[in-house]
Fold:
Amino acid sequence: MIRKVFVDSDVILDVATGRTPFVDASAETLSIMENGLAVGVVSSNSVTNIYYVLRKLGSSEKAKAFLRTILEYLSVIPVDHNNIRKALDSEFLDFEDGVQHYCAFENGCDLIVTRNVEDYGEFQIEVLTPREFVLRFK
Structure:
């Protein structure tokens, strides 16, 4: 069964920057989406954050080229007013993670893949590390 998976920006940045020891599991995670075994999505604000980080580390053109590549197999879902309000009123310790959670939930995602699992706690969507996610497909 193909699942709709919200991919947090840390997973994408692991691949873009080659962050060890995380790059292998994160690359396998994205490969699952690239091969159509799961439907991957990323939030609109994550795209701008990824661009910002990659531009600072390299160049605008390299950042855009990387984003064009991943957007071939990851869809962008919007962050809206309701997501922001719910995150502001939630018990999330990390506001950005709250926004991502409500964005993923309201866009029908089955799970979130992130390296910051502990920041999500017990909310409405299952949260897995890239390694845990990859193991589900093996």
